[in-house]
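quick one, 605 residues, struct below
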Amino acid sequence: MKNDLPPAGTTPPPNEACATLQRRLRAETGGAVLFDDASRGRYATDASIYQIMPVGVFVPEKADHIATALAIARETGVPVLPRGGGTSQCGQTVGAALVVDTSKHFRRVLDLDLDARQVTVEPGLVLDHLNAQLKPHGLWYPVDVSTSAQATLGGMAGNNSCGSRSIAYGNMVHNVAGAQAWLADGSLLDFGPMAQMTGRALEIGQFVRGLAQQHAAEIEARWPKVLRRVAGYNLDIFHPQSEKPYTADGSVNLAHLLVGAEGTLAFTRSLTLQLSDLPRHKVLGIVNFNSFRQAMASAQHIVKLGPTAVELVDRIMVELALANPAFQPTMQTALIGRPEAILLVEFAGADKATLLARLKDLQALMGDLGLPGSVVTMPDEAPQKALWEVRKAGLNIMMSLKGDGKPVSFIEDCAVPLEHLADYTDALTEVFARHGTHGTWYAHASVGTLHVRPILDMRRDGPDGGAQRMRAIAEEAAELVRTYKGAFSGEHGDGLCRGEWIQWQFGPAIGDALRAIKQQFDPQGLFNPGKIIDPPRMDDVALLRFAPPSAPRPYQHIPITPVLDWSAWNVHNDPVTEQTTAPGTGGDVTGGLAKAVEMCNNNGH
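---
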């Protein structure tokens, strides 16, 4: 029987419930209660392609405010969506719910244990702010996401974030020691090693362990054997054949079940994080390639040298960086001629002489691979830092592509084993060509996760429309991921974009197990509905920010004539025909300023 109801989390609760929620929040809490259109509009988007107006926004000042808000939401039947910096690229932090923003007031370090090298933090603390406090102690939190200046640690845990150096340090789940969180029933529980659990937390752990034992064969057969696997819930932590232990002794830490859950199981009160020694020295080798395939084929050999990072920058990103006055001088220092791609290969450690020897090993390796003289060495810290800033700005650089088509995020973090990376990228390039577009590539060649974004115009309807081609490309990409035994979701989570692919990745039996986990934690469906469990279709035009004319809420330009001259931005770059026309005139109400605004990708940088 077909279910014609709209997906959970995409339509608001009844007006009466929303009005009661607003009234009670104002009367019973001390936080900011924001239900006006402007405030709700600010929280309707994140760094994804989606837009859903929330019921309202609550900015708590104290922990008691959150506990009270959860109780009111539970009693009024209004769902709750935890949110940090809103840098999510798959729509995890948008929905028709009460958004609870922890990024303003919950930013403290609660405890620092230098002997154990652990820190306990509130969920709204930004990663760069934490690392600034840790630096005097010679420590850092090494899950170094490119949005480190904006991303909160609670959001990173919710997303199971990774980073440029995950080949050396692992993902978020490998670096979380414990969590304290509210369940939907209002109880505040401590989650950590199973041996230390009691009461309700132990009951949950035993329930999930039973599911893992019941589905052991399915987990072994279907869970991707790659480091970058962040889809669904981390049911595999109970599986003895899990590729990499999540704790030092290989035991199970129940906090890891919350990591990557996208706020659908519990609301984080605090996180205890495992820290690493801050490297005393770093050196960088930039390998220049005359072909993209050479770069992809070389990655599997380069990682055997033990680098802390191997990051890709493709030709499009190189050219865009060279065209940007802020990045041009730095990028020029890394290039030999005009390469089709470069790999940034970093070695870090306590002894500089050892690291310099690694750079020589890299140069020798490239010679053995038929590419002598292809490495630019950067042994000094200042130029390295400048080049890493260019790489961290990769998404912003990509979005500076002028015209109607934009690089769209929906298959950008599929992960495949390194031995298949060159074949996978070649095949995916052919998929793009068949659908009349091409992709931009950058990021984590070290772990087989490349951020690839096909250039699409999401405002267009019909066979050439962005949503239709997005669906077709995603289906073909998924088959490639299956062929090469990879993970469809390898870094940026599920959200609205990849939620529907969880069942495809894991099959119906594990899909039912994930639903049972949600039911065990949150039987009322209070937390972030429509994510992981019962998600909408990724191409539902009603949820798109740049929606086509056929959508219930199509994207429109506001007809204004700006005072300043924005004509340089009024480029027409058709992603289907690949034809580009010259900039229009300043003051054109459909170009100029509007196209400059559309270069923003909402990640807050």
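The chain has 20 helices and 20 strands.
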